Here is the input.
Amino acid sequence: MKSSNLLKFLQIRLKNQLGLSKLNTTSASIKFHSRITLIGYIIVFALLVIYFAYLPFQMLSEGNLQDINTYVIGIIFWILAIWTCLSGILNLIYSEDHDYIFTLPIEKWQAKLSVIIYQYILYSFLTLILLSVVQISLILINPIPFYNIIYIFLMALCTPALAIVLTVIVVFIVKEILNYLSIKSNLVVSLLSFVLLIAPLIFSYSKTGVRNPKLGVIEVSLLPFPIFGELDIIQHFTIFGMIAFVFLGSYIFLLLVNNKYDKILAKFSRQSDSANSHFKLYITPSFVALMKRELKLYSSSFSYLSNTILMPILLILIGAASLLFGEKLIPEYTFSIFNNDFNISSEKVYYIIFTACLVLTTTTTCAFSIEGSKIWIIKSLPLTIFEVSFIKFFLNLLIFIPGIIIAILSCLFMGLVPLQVIQAIALLVCNLIFTSVLGLLLNFRLPNYQWSNEMEVVKQGLSTIIAAITSMLQVAVTSLIVIFLDFNYLFILIGFEMMLTVYFIITFQRERYFR
Here is the structure.
């Protein structure tokens, strides 16, 4: 009976996360936001299904069809692991409805593990669907033995479990080490956890390069050999051993979480040390005070920090790689369209990646919404909206400054003519300013202060979704210009973005946002 109650609770949780529970509300704005959120999930899921359905045909043309399941299981694992890390493992232990869960008619261990169980079921469902799509496409090309399909679906149950458990262990180890060193910065925890988690992937790509991105994933997949044809006895035992190890490890992990739940919660909960703080009253310039406050707000939210710091860090890493390795990491590539050959040099690929890193993440789309119900504090202060807005805008520039400096240096050493260098650098700067201003305007127009979980703002916010779509269009247009027209015509996009930025600023003034 209590197990059925747990299932009912998990169903309700899924409806809330997808926004289905809000579709019947009388509030038009909440209903509209729920519909957009649901549409966004459907579009992303449809794109994933299409990509995985096409994968067997793509890998057949590349001549490595035998590695299809190895690659698919590998890419799903890394997607789930990175997603779990960026979402924050605290959300697996403690949720906003934590107190409510423990009042439900379910077993105490079910209440403690309900969020982990929910996440595992959701991950497993998505993994099974994607693997099923791949197997259906594979049947049309080269059917594999039935027992291999059984192994694949058993791995589909193991992959989400391993992604969750491994991510939690990595973050826990990092947090324990930093606590021992008396370092309590969420920024440091987030960065070190993410880097340590993807270290095997980085090491793999350092050996295989990125010309064929699939090879890097295949090298560190859960499967040490392809599940494609007939398997020998050692391979059978290896698969059974891996499956048994994952399930046994997951069982031990759940036992530890259940038995040490209170201690784990105490370690990862947001604790305030205000009781031991000594307060001093002194006067500082409003800019300095607001900047300190904004940095504190940014670093105190693991979800906000982890989901917006990835691209600035990636920009630094890719920029440094372009200066140190150049063509060794990303070689020149040529492709043909309608009997016309087009050359994609390493410089073009690097520049497209720089653009993607700059525009695919911006803090300004949720800069005001992340304040939540505390937004009234800002409104009551003797400050103009312009001052507060500029600080939030400046924060987004600040976190990208190291990366954009390295990207600019890379442009200087790309061997372009002076006019091309000027255009390349100018577009990078314009992209950052344009995306930041657009995000701020969208957050003004589509704020969400009534959220129960930070992820509703950071990932599911309507302003974030619209900005992400716009950013993908920016990357697409930049790629088309760079690949087909070279660096000589970037001024077209520069002029367009500058005009839109001016229009956005005029809109701020016209609609009295800055007063």
